[in-house]
Design brief:
4 copies of one chain form a homotetramer. The first copy, chain A, is mainly α. Chain A folds into 2 domains: 1-45, Orthogonal Bundle (Arc Repressor Mutant, subunit A), CATH 1.10.10; 56-206, Tetracycline Repressor, domain 2. The first copy, chain A, has helices at 4-19, 26-33, 37-44, 47-71, 77-94, 96-105, 112-138, 147-163, 165-172, 179-202. Chain A is globular. The structure holds a DNA duplex.
Chain lengths: 208, 208, 208, 208
DNA sequence: CATGAATGAGGGTTCATTCAT
DNA sequence: AATGAATGAACCCTCATTCAT
C-alpha cells in the first residue's frame, strides 16, 4: 500500500464499522494500519477529522451515478427504477462497513459537523431520485406516492440487511462467517424483493 | 421517582440513544439519574449488564401485543396489517431512543451476549408477523411475497425515520428541536405510506 | 458452625493466607463465611481489627505449651530440644496458613498495632526457648551459641517450607495440590533435619 | 536520575517492600518516582508486569556469582561455604527490600507467572549451591546432610532477619529507624552465627 | 517529514464502611 | 441484634493528543 493516508482511511473504516467510532481507539487504527500512532493526528488532526475525511472519501461516486441515471433518455421509468435498485443494493451491500458507520453516526451521536456532512450528502442524492420518480409520474407510469418515504423504504430495507446482519443470518440460515455467501444470497433476493415491492407500489394501475 | 433502578434504566436509555453506548460514561448516567456512581455497578453489575437489563425491560410488551393481534379472530388479514403498522409506527416513534440503541447494537459492535439477546427477541416477534401474513395468504387475500424481507421493509422504513431524524427534519422542513411536532407529523404520514405500500405489495389482485 | 464469629475468623485466615490481607476483600470473607457483609464491621469494627482478633485467637496455645515444656523436670535438655522441634514443626506446618499471614505482616506492611501485637507475642515465646537453651548450657550439655539467631534458624527453616511451598514442591517432586502428602513428607524430613542440625550446633563436644 | 524506567523500578521496590504489592498503588509509585501515572502502564504494561520486570532486574547477578564461586578451584569446601554465607548475608541484608517482596510473593498470593518466575530463579541458584556441598562431601570434608533443607536453613535464617526486622530490633535493642546501624550489627552477627552453625552441621567429624 | 516519549483526563469497577430499619 | 441499601474514595488502566527531536 503506497499511500499511507488511504491505508489509514480503509483501516479506520473497517474498525469503525466493527467496533463503532467510540469503541475504536486511534491505537487500534495505527496498529492495524501499521503506522505510527502520532501519524494519525499528524495527518488528519484528530480522530473526528479522520471520520470526516472517511465520509468525504466515500461520498463522491454515488451522486455522479445517480445524476447520470437521471439524465439517461434511453431508459423508461421502470428501467430506471430497476437500475436504481440494482445500484443501491450493490453499493450498500458491498460497502456495508461504510454504510453502517453512516447509519450509526447520522443520529444524535457524533458532532454537528459530521451530521451536517451526512445530511447534505443524503439530500443531494435524494434530489436525483425524486426527479426520477416525478418523471415517471409525469409520464403516467407511476401513481402518486409519498416520494420521500418511498425512498426511506428502499434505503431502510437495505439498511436493515446490513445493520441487522446477525439477525438475518440466523433467520435465513446463513453461515455468519462466510461473507461471500451472505452477499450473494442476500443481493439476489433483495433486488427481487425491492423490484416487486416498488412495481406494485408505484404502478399507476394500482391506484387506489 | 420512587424506583431508583428504573430511574437509572430510563436515564441510560436517554443517554445511550443520544451519545451511544461507548460514548456514554457511567458517571454521566449516575449524575443525570441523580444517584451514586457505585450504585450502577451495585444494581446491575456492570455497564454492559445495564444495557442488557434495558433491553429486557423494553422487550416484553411487543411480543404480547403481536401474539394477541395474531390470535384475534374478529379481524380480517387487511385489518391485521393495518393494526400491525399502527402498532409498530407508534411503538418505534415513541420509543425511538430505545429503538436506535437496538439498531446500533445489533450490529458487530457490542458483545455476543447483547447480540444474542436482540436476535432472539427479534426472531420471536417476527414469528408472529409471519403467521399473520401466511394466514392472509391462505385466505387468498395476499399474494406470494418474500415475508422476511417484507418485514425488513416495514421495520427498515420506520428505522430510517428515527435513525435519520436529522435528515428527515431537514427534508420535511420540521423544527429539529420540537419533538412533539416531529412525532405528530411523521406518525400520520408514515402510517399512510406504509399502509399504501403494503396494500399494493400484498394484494393478490396485483399478482404479477 | 454455631459461632459465626469463629466462622468469620477461620474464613479470614484461609483467605488472608491465600491472597494476602490487602488482596482479600471483606466481601470475599463474608461470602465464603456465608454471613452478611455488614456483619464483619459489626462484629470486629474493621478489617484490620479482624486481623488483630485472628492473631489473638491463634496465639494463646503456643505460650502455654512452651512454658510447660520449660518447667518439665523429667526431660533432659536434648529431649527438650527434640520436643521443641516436634512442636514447632507440627504447629507451623499444620497452621501454615496462619503462620504465613504472620510472616508477611510482621514486616513493614500492616499497622503499628498489628506489628506490636506480633512482636509482643514472639518475644514472649522466645523467652521460654531461651530458658531451655540456657538450662542446657548450665548443665553442660550445650556449648555457647547465639541463642536468638539459633531460634531464627529454627523458625526460619520452617518458615521457608511454608512460605516457599511452591518452590519446595517443585524441588522435592511433590504434587502441589495434595496438601496431605506434602505435609507428611515434609514434616518427617524437616524434623530429622532440624534435630540433626541442632544436635551438631549445640553439642558441647563440638566446641570450636 | 537519567533513566526513568530504572527510577520507577527502584521506587516500586521500595514501596512494594514497605506496603506490599496490593498495598501499593500505581499512583503511589508514580508520585514517589516523580513520573506521570500513565507512564507506568506505558513502560511496563501493567502493575503486575512491573513486578515481573523488577524481579528480572534483580535476579541476574546472583546466579553469576554463585556459578563463579562454584567453579573456583583455588578454594577448599570450607572456604566456599564461608564465601557463600558472606555473599548471601550481604546480598539479602542490603537488598532486604527486594528480598522481602520475593518472600511474600513466592507464596500463594500473586499470579502463576510471578510464582513461576521466582521458582525458576530459585531452582537455578540452588543447583549451584548443591554442587558446592556435594563437592565437599566427595572430598570428605562434609558429612551426609539434607542438602535442600540445609539451604532452607541458611536462607530461612537470613529471611527471618529481614522479614522480622521489627522483632529483632526489639530483641537486640537496636534503634528501628537507623538502617545503617541495624545492618552493621546484624551482618556481623549473622555471618558468625551461620558459619558456626554450618561448620558444626557439615563437619564430617561430627558424623552421628 | 516522521516519530518515540510523555501526559492530563477520564474510563469502568471495586473497595471498606456506614446507617436506617 | 442484624442487615440490605447505599456511598465516597480509590483502584488500575486506556484514552486522544502533544511535542521535542
Amino acid at each position: 500500500m503506497a499511500d499511507k493516508k488511504t491505508e489509514i482511511l480503509l483501516t479506520a473504516e473497517e474498525l469503525f464499522a466493527e467496533k463503532g467510532f467510540d469503541g475504536t481507539s486511534v491505537r487500534d487504527i495505527a496498529q492495524h494500519a501499521g503506522v505510527n500512532l502520532a501519524m494519525i493526528s499528524y495527518y488528519f488532526g484528530s480522530k473526528e477529522k479522520l471520520l470526516e475525511a472517511l465520509i468525504e472519501y466515500r461520498s463522491g461516486y454515488t451522486f455522479d451515478t445517480l445524476e447520470e441515471l437521471n439524465k439517461d433518455q434511453s431508459l423508461n421509468p421502470w428501467d430506471k427504477i430497476d437500475r436504481l435498485v440494482d445500484f443501491y443494493v450493490e453499493k450498500i451491500i458491498s460497502n456495508n462497513k461504510f454504510h453502517n458507520i453512516i447509519s450509526v453516526h447520522s443520529g444524535q451521536l457524533s458532532s454537528p459537523e459530521i451530521r451536517e456532512l451526512i445530511t447534505k450528502m443524503k439530500l443531494r442524492n435524494l434530489e436525483q431520485i425524486r426527479k426520477i420518480i416525478q418523471d415517471g409520474q409525469k409520464k403516467k407510469f407511476f401513481r402518486k406516492v409519498d416520494i420521500e418515504f418511498t425512498m426511506g423504504s428502499v434505503m431502510g430495507t437495505i439498511s436493515q440487511l446490513t445493520l441487522l446482519k446477525n439477525f438475518y443470518c440466523s433467520l435465513l440460515n446463513i453461515d455468519k462467517t462466510d461473507e461471500e455467501v451472505y452477499r450473494k444470497k442476500v443481493i439476489v433476493r433483495l433486488k427481487t424483493h425491492l423490484k416487486q415491492l416498488l412495481r406494485a407500489h408505484l404502478d399507476i394501475r394500482n391506484e387506489a
